[in-house]
Amino acid sequence: MPGPGRHCQPRWPKSRSKHEFFVDMTCEGCSNAVTRVLHRLGGVQFDIDLPNKKVCIDSEHSVDTLLETLKKTGKNASYLGEKSVQ
Length: 86
Fold this sequence. Notes:
GO biological process, one term: copper ion transport
Mean pLDDT: 85
Oligomer: single chain
Strand order of the largest sheet: 2-3-1-4
Protein name: Copper transport protein ATOX1
Low-confidence stretches: 9-14
GO molecular function, one term: metal ion binding
Number of helices: 2
Number of strands: 4
Strand content: 25-35%
Family: Belongs to the ATX1 family.
Function: Binds and deliver cytosolic copper to the copper ATPase proteins. May be important in cellular antioxidant defense.
Largest sheet: 4 strands, antiparallel
Order of helices and strands: EHEEHE
């Protein structure tokens, strides 16, 4: 499982999309909340970049579903864009 601060790396078949989100995380408790809601959603792999307040998610879920899930943390969240596979 990826840990905080790890960079997005291709882990899924190309049918999945990799998306980057801003989440207004200020501490490890915030990143733990993101981890909880994404684990509950399922079907995702993700990396949390706490210092830059970014979450990179590999998933077949829609951007809307992912964004609504992140907002369940109570933190401000927004979609930054699709990440290109390198």
